[in-house]
Design a protein that fits this description.
Layout: H1 2-41, H2 43-53, H3 64-67, H4 72-78, H5 118-124, H6 133-141, H7 143-146, H8 160-172, H9 185-192, H10 194-199, H11 203-215, H12 228-233, H13 237-250, H14 252-260
Helix pairs in contact: 4-8, 6-8, 9-13, 11-13
The structure holds heme C (HEC).
């Protein structure tokens, strides 16, 4: 009697353990399926990855988004990869590649006394095509893919940051540096808002205030919250917008000029 009572208790206990374990395993399974769902939901992460190197999927990387934050010093460093073939001084010699003084903004294939490949000469369209931010970035990303037949034997600068920095460096090697580019339409809109104009009064605060103005529609960030830390920790659309606004607010004159001749990609340029 006693024993069977004990057995019944033990059986009930085991049944409960069984049920608990089953539930726990089942809920584990549920939680395991939920975690990836949350990761996938983090648009910010996906956005950052796309910005860093996913340009294959979303068309060519828009280098304008990085130019405002590009570093001339880092660019000089990146240029060490180019030095074996290129000089940059005014009147510098052609080596394996042409002299690159004032290359940003100048017509393609226009260095004196350099025997360009037929492919680059064709791309130059008789002096119509100029080296501007976007086409130079795409060329440097992968020269032979961008201009098939070019004799520039260089694998390319895969990192958009490297391209932005070296272009920023080349930009300074000119008697008349090209104005910084306008990143994107949203930024151009921001230019016309009073907030953006006010923000431009203080360059430091400009990007923060600009970011706040841009994000106010979607999130509730205050300028104080929009710290650099925050921007770095999550590369969001807002950041891109902030960078855009930065470019806008740091060089309003340049912008106005560019507004007159919008994206001046291949035909027009302000030499
Ligand atoms: C192995 C040598 C070599 C290296 C390294 C090299 N280039 Fe070139 N580059 C050339 C040659 C050769 C040409 C001419 C291409 C042609 O005629 O098709 C050229 C052309 C160019 C042009 C077009 C110039 C014009 O007048 O239209 C640019 C811009 C340029 N290179 C930038 C760079 C940069 C920036 C780097 C470094 C990131 C670099 N190159 C690395 C050999 C090189």
């Amino acid at each position: 009697m006693n024993t069977s009572y004990f057995n019944a208790i033990a059986g009930a206990f085991l049944a409960v353990v069984f049920v608990v374990m089953t539930v726990s395993i089942a809920s584990d399974a549920i939680f395991h399926t939920r975690e990836p769902v949350q990761e996938g939901f983090e648009i910010e992460v996906a956005e950052g990855g796309g910005e860093a190197g996913g340009q294959e999927d979303a068309g060519p990387f828009q280098i304008a988004t990085l130019m405002a934050g590009a570093s001339v010093d880092d660019g000089a460093n990146v240029f060490k990869k180019c030095q074996s073939c290129h000089t940059v001084e005014d009147g510098g010699a052609n080596k394996v590649g042409p002299n690159l003084w004032h290359v940003l903004g100048r017509p393609v294939a226009s260095a004196a006394d350099f025997a360009y490949s037929p492919a680059l000469v064709e791309y130059a369209a008789g002096g119509e095509t100029h080296w501007l931010y976007q086409n130079l970035s795409e060329f440097l990303d992968n020269p032979k893919r961008y201009i098939s037949g070019t004799k520039m034997s260089f694998a390319g600068l895969k990192k958009p940051e490297d391209r932005a920095n070296v272009i920023a460096y080349l930009r300074t090697l000119s008697p008349d540096p090209l104005p910084l580019p306008t990143p994107e339409p949203e930024a151009a809109d921001a230019e016309t808002t009073p907030e953006a104009t006010e923000a431009s009064a203080t360059p430091e605060a400009a990007s923060d205030a600009g970011a706040a103005a841009d994000t106010s529609g979607s999130t509730e960030m205050t300028p104080a919250e929009t710290t650099e830390e925050k921007a770095e920790e999550s590369k969001t659309l807002d950041e891109a917008a902030a960078e855009g606004t930065d470019a806008v607010t740091t060089d309003v004159d340049a912008l106005e000029e560019e507004a007159a001749e919008p994206t001046a990609t291949e035909t027009e340029s302000s030499n």
